[in-house]
Amino acid sequence: MNPTTIQAIQASWKSLLNKETSFLSHVQHLIEVGVVKYHVDLPEGYIQYQNNTQATHTEPLSTSFAVKSDFCKDKLVKAIQWAQQNDPDYTYLSFLQQIAKGGVAAYTVDIQAKRVDYCGLKGQHHTEFFPSSPKH
Q1: What sign does the dihedral 131-97-31-113 (CA atoms) show?
Q2: How confident is the model at residue 136, as a pLDDT?
């Protein structure tokens, strides 16, 4: 990725962590700078962004997360619902902590396909579609 795109990703990420912008605004900003997919690895503590030419950029999370070995879809869905409700106590890092407690080790967001694939440590898998997008 080019330096301008990387700087824009970093600035948006910083705004998200500082609660200066919402998660949806952050994703919109990623779209505007050409990000089509990103992958979050909780135990390793990083996010890898990808554009439409397959170029990538990796940013560290501020921490890594201990992931429960048992994958609990109900805990995952509850955390997703919490994030979508615009709760004033919501933070992205709290969301990551909640899904790690639910056994999510990593997830990939495909912005173009409007879907998120969550994976557990033992190969468990759950897919969510963006709100208001039809399931395929």
Answers
A1: negative
A2: 45
